[in-house]
Design brief:
The chain is α/β, with parallel strands linked by helices. Keywords: Membrane, Transmembrane, Transmembrane helix.
């Protein structure tokens, strides 16, 4: 009995020592890992919103943090850029218009797309913007599924601003470099602070040249240069539509509450002396055709224009890219337009409100649309020599470097 008691005591002692040693090793690992993670985040620029914005007010730079994933995260960065730029004209709303650049604008323009993913978050993002600066014109890009109760039950819900910043030295942020190393997203040399580039802020900007430029527009370099994109042939988007999930959940009738929510936003802007130009973000042709085959399931798209007209709102229906001369080759995926499609939409909006002409260099706009027809992106020399591929596998003809023609 005494021997058994002695053996239990020894086992208990060793077990206790084992856990103490394990805890000490974990503490040591955290003591070493956290400072390395913090230094890496600083040097990569993943937390450098203020540094990125300061640089972007002077020259071309990209901000593409690996920590920003939500509309609220994008708003935090773009609101800082908005405060610094104080634009005359703003694009707000759908991430599907994120690639519109200021290339053809003759007055200060900023792309605030992607800062909202519903009607309530659209209202919140606009309120946040107007507390900082009042632009003259707001181009309101809407996604049709924002008008579905299945997407957002209460479009008048109050969206509270985040109390803590995503771009701070949080435990989640400190883990990010190590997670990317273990997952193979970054290589060991990249993890060891090798290859960081000036005027690139964030892991996506540093190693893929993905991110937001000085005008707030999205550069999706890793997508357009990939041999095959994730949504090649729009297969992933068409699969969601076929299964009626996500943005494609059917609806029996238009929601009065959602129409009223947009009317509230629209007339509040007009009451502030701002010109709102409202339009639908486009959907790739094959995806729209699949929806038209089940038109009765999507009244929040196909009957939206007439319903808003009854409330005194003119909606420019640019949901079908073929209507204004675009093609599937000018898309990033089934729901996100490329730069050329976005520019075509702006030109189309001048037919609805000719006051927009005073903000545009139409000669430049038409030249770019002619030169880059069939492309998702217009080459930006300051970004580097990247060549767009037929990444959607649609047999699109793309420009090639001299010598590979």
């Amino acid at each position: 009995m005494d021997d058994r008691h002695w053996e239990d005591s020894v086992a208990s002692t060793w077990l206790r020592r084992f856990f103490i040693i394990l805890a000490l090793l974990l503490a040591l690992a955290l003591f070493v890992a956290s400072p390395i993670g913090g230094l890496w985040l600083y040097l990569s620029g993943d937390l450098g919103v203020e540094r990125a914005v300061r640089t972007q007010t002077r020259t071309f730079a990209l901000f593409g943090s690996g920590l920003s994933h939500t509309a609220a995260d994008v708003l935090e960065y773009k609101l800082a850029l908005y405060a610094a730029k104080k634009p005359h004209i703003v694009l707000a709303g759908s991430a599907g218009m994120g690639t519109l650049r200021d290339t053809a604008f003759v007055r200060p323009m900023l792309n605030m797309a992607g800062t909202a993913d519903s009607l309530s978050s659209l209202r919140a993002s606009l309120d946040a913007m107007l507390q900082v600066h009042k632009p003259q014109v707001i181009l309101l890009a809407l996604d049709f599924w924002w008008f579905s109760p299945a997407w957002e039950k209460d479009p008048f819900a109050l969206q509270e601003r985040k109390r803590s910043s995503t771009y701070s030295m949080s435990p989640n942020a400190l883990r990010m470099p190590w997670q990317n190393l273990l997952q193979g997203t970054i290589s060991l040399p990249q993890f060891l602070f090798l290859g960081f580039r000036e005027n690139r802020f964030g892991i996506r900007a540093q190693f893929a040249s993905d991110g937001y430029g000085p005008d707030g527009s999205l550069y999706a370099t890793s997508t357009i240069t990939a041999p095959l994109a994730r949504d090649a042939g729009f297969a992933r988007t068409l699969d969601r539509q076929r299964r009626h999930i996500g943005e494609f959940v059917p609806q029996e009738a238009l929601s009065t509450a959602h129409l009223d929510a947009l009317a509230d936003i629209y007339f509040r802007l007009r009451g502030r002396g701002i010109v709102p130009v409202v339009f639908l973000a486009p959907v790739a042709g094959p995806v729209l055709d699949a929806m038209k085959a089940q038109e009765e399931l999507y009244p929040h798209l196909f009957r939206l224009k007439s319903a808003l007209a009854e409330r005194g709102i003119e909606l420019v229906d640019t949901s079908d890219p073929r209507y204004f001369g675009s093609s599937s080759c000018e898309f990033l995926d089934g729901m996100h337009s490329g730069e050329v499609t976005a520019l075509r939409i702006v030109r189309e909006l001048t037919s609805s409100w000719n006051g927009l002409l005073s903000y545009l260099n139409m000669e430049q706009c038409n030249r770019l649309l002619t030169e880059w027809k069939g492309h998702a992106a217009i080459q930006q020399p300051l970004l580097g020599a990247f060549w767009e591929q037929d990444f959607l596998d649609l047999q699109c003809l793309k420009r090639k470097p001299a010598g590979l023609q």
